[in-house]
C-alpha cells in the first residue's frame, strides 16, 4: 500500500513540474496596446480597415512579435538592419556605370527626394506600361540613367538600397494606388491570395486572414503585412525582400514558388500592400 | 560588402561620477580562416583582432577578439565618468588597417 502511495506522490510531483515547464516556455507575447516608438516618433501599428479590406483591425507584424523582438526595432542602434542601411547610403553617393553618375547626382538628398516612395510601392509605370516594384525602379535607373548593370534582386546592394530608400518613408502610412491600369494587377493579386497552392493545398488567406493570431507550430501567425520590408529576420540573419518572404511561404506549403520579380509576385505585392493601407512604413523592421 | 563602418552609442550628457553604458558595433565579416571557397581553397583569415576605448587618452576598455567571434562584433560595456572629454574607439584589423571614431561627452 505504502509503495503505491509513493508512486502516486511521485507522479503528482512530475505532473507539477511539467505544468511549470509549460508555463515557463510559453512565448512572451507583447501586451495589448503597446506602442511602437522609434526615436520619439510613434508609428501606427494598428489601424481601421479601408473599404473592402477584410482585416479588422489591420495590424502590423510588429504587434505579433515577442517583447524582445519588438524592443530591437525601437532603437536604431540595436536594429541589426542598420549596417546594411549604411551600406545603402554609401551606394547612393557612389558613382557607377558608364555615365559616372551616382543616385545622388540626379536625386540629390534622399531624405527629401525619396520621402514617401516606399509607401506607394508597387506603382504603375506609365512609360513602361506595367506595374513596378521599388527594385524595378532602382534597376531601371541603373540601366537607363547610370549605364550600370542591374543588381540582382536579393543582392546586398539591392537590399541596402531598398532599405535606405525605404527608411526615408518610415512613419508614413502605406498608400498604394489601385486605380486605372493597376486595378487589373490588384485583382490578379487578390485572386492569388485566395487560391490554394502546393501539396498542402493552402491559400494565403487561410493562415493570414482566417487564422491570424493563432499558433502555427511554434510561430505566431501574423496578418502577413509587408509594411516593414526589406525586413531583418533572425531566420535569415540579414535583410530580405518581400518576394523572398513570399517565396518562403510558398516553399512552406510545398508549392512551386514563383520567381522573384515575376509578374505573379508583383501583383501579389500590390494586393498585400493594399491590405496594409494606413499602417506606418517600418523599414527596416525586425522580425523572427 | 562595404568597408567596415563603426557604429557607437554614447550618451551626450552625464552627471559627475555616473556609470554610463557604451554600445559599439562595427560592420565586419570576421572571416575566420577556417572556411573554403568554391574551389576548395582556404579563405584567408581577416578579423578585427583588437578593440580599445580611450577616454581623454586613458584606456577605459580594451579586448582581443578571436576568430570565433561572429560577424559585426558588438561590444557593450560601462564606464564611470568624472570629467567632460572625448571617447576614442579603435578597431584593429588583421590587414593592418585601423578604424576609429570619436564621441564627445559633457559631464555636468
Can you describe what's shown?
The complex is a heterodimer of chains A (288) and B (108). Chain A is mainly alpha-helical. Chain A has helices at 2-25, 67-73, 82-92, 103-107, 110-113, 134-146, 156-167, 182-193, 204-210, 242-252, 263-275; strands spanning 36-38, 41-43, 46-47, 58-59, 123-125, 130-132, 215-216, 219-220, 231-233, 238-240, 286-287. Chain A contains eleven helices and eleven strands. The longest helix of chain A has 24 residues, at 2-25. Residues 1-27 of chain A have low confidence and may be disordered. By secondary structure, chain B is mainly beta. Chain B is 0% helix and 51% strand. Chain B contains no helices and eight strands. Chain B has strands at 6-9, 13-14, 19-26, 48-55, 58-64, 74-80, 85-93, 98-107. A five-stranded mixed beta sheet of chain B has the order 2-8-7-4-5, with no helix packed on it. In chain B, a hairpin with a 2-residue loop joins strand 4 and strand 5 (58-64). The termini of chain B are far apart. At the A-B interface, helix 3 of A face loops of B.
Amino acid at each position: 500500500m505504502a509503495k503505491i502511495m509513493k508512486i502516486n506522490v511521485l507522479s503528482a510531483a512530475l505532473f507539477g513540474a511539467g505544468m511549470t515547464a509549460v508555463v515557463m516556455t510559453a512565448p512572451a507575447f507583447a501586451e495589448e496596446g503597446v506602442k511602437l516608438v522609434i526615436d520619439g516618433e510613434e508609428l501606427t501599428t494598428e489601424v481601421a480597415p479601408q473599404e473592402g479590406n477584410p482585416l479588422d483591425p489591420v495590424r502590423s507584424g510588429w504587434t505579433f512579435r515577442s517583447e524582445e523582438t519588438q524592443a530591437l526595432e525601437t532603437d536604431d542602434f540595436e536594429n541589426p538592419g542598420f549596417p546594411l542601411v549604411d551600406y545603402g547610403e554609401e551606394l547612393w553617393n557612389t558613382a557607377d556605370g558608364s555615365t559616372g553618375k551616382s543616385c545622388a547626382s540626379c536625386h540629390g538628398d534622399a531624405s527629401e527626394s525619396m520621402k514617401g516612395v516606399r509607401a506607394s510601392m508597387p506603382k504603375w509605370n506609365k512609360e513602361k506600361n506595367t506595374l513596378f516594384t521599388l527594385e524595378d525602379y532602382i534597376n531601371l535607373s541603373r540601366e537607363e540613367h547610370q549605364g550600370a548593370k542591374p543588381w540582382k534582386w536579393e543582392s546586398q546592394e539591392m537590399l541596402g538600397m531598398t532599405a535606405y530608400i525605404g527608411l526615408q518613408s518610415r512613419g508614413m502610412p502605406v498608400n498604394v494606388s489601385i486605380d486605372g491600369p493597376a486595378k487589373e494587377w490588384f485583382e490578379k493579386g487578390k485572386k492569388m491570395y485566395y487560391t490554394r497552392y502546393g501539396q498542402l493545398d493552402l491559400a494565403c488567406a487561410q493562415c493570414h486572414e482566417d487564422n491570424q493570431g493563432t499558433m502555427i507550430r511554434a510561430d505566431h501567425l501574423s496578418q502577413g503585412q509587408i509594411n516593414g520590408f526589406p525586413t531583418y529576420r533572425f531566420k535569415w540573419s540579414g535583410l530580405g525582400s518581400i518576394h523572398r518572404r513570399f517565396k518562403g511561404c510558398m516553399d512552406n506549403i510545398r508549392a512551386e514558388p514563383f520567381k522573384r520579380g515575376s509578374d505573379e509576385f508583383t501583383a501579389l505585392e500590390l494586393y498585400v500592400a493594399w491590405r496594409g493601407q494606413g499602417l506606418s512604413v517600418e523599414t527596416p523592421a525586425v522580425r523572427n | 560588402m562595404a568597408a567596415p563602418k563603426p557604429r557607437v552609442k554614447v550618451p551626450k550628457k552625464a552627471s559627475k561620477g555616473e556609470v554610463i553604458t557604451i554600445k559599439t558595433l562595427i560592420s565586419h565579416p570576421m572571416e575566420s580562416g577556417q572556411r573554403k571557397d568554391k574551389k576548395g581553397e582556404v579563405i584567408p583569415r581577416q578579423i578585427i583582432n583588437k578593440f580599445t576605448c580611450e577616454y581623454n587618452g586613458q584606456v577605459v576598455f580594451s579586448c582581443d577578439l578571436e576568430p570565433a567571434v561572429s560577424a559585426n562584433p558588438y561590444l557593450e560595456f560601462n564606464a564611470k565618468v568624472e570629467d567632460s572629454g572625448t571617447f576614442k574607439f579603435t578597431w584593429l584589423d588583421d590587414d593592418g588597417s585601423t578604424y576609429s571614431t570619436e564621441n564627445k561627452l559633457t559631464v555636468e
